[in-house]
Amino acid sequence: MLWKLSLTGIKSRLRDYLVLFSGLVMASAIFYMFESMASNEAFLTSNSTISSTVIIFRLGSVLLGIITFVYILYANSFLMTMRQKDYAMFMMLGAKGRKIAQMIFSETFIVGILATLVGSVVGMGLTSIVSHLLVQQLNIKISHFSPFSVHGLLITIVFFSILFLLAAIVNAFSIVKKPILTLIRADQTPTQMKQHKFLFFLEVVLGIASLTCGYYMMQNLEKFQLFGIVIALVTIVLGTYFIFHSVIIFCLSLLKKADGIALRKLNNFTLSQLSFRIREYTQMLSMVAMLFALALGALTVGLGFKNEISKMTNSFTVYDVVLNNAQKIDQQEVAKLDPKVNASYTQKEDEQTIYYLSEQFEQMPFIVKEGMNGDRNIKPKNKEITATQLAQELTLQDSLREYELPEQQPKEIKLVSQEEFSQLNLPETTLQLIQVTDFDKQLSNLEKLVAENKANNEELKNVDYSFTQKADVYNTFNSMFSGFEFMGFFLGLAFLTMLASCLMFKILSGSKSDQVRYEMLQKIGTRQGLLTQSIRREIGVLFLAPGLLGVVHVLFGLQMFKLLMSDPYDNLWLPFTIFFVLYFVYYVITTWLYTGIVLKKKA
Question: Is the pTM value of this prediction over 0.85?
Answer without folding.
Answer: no
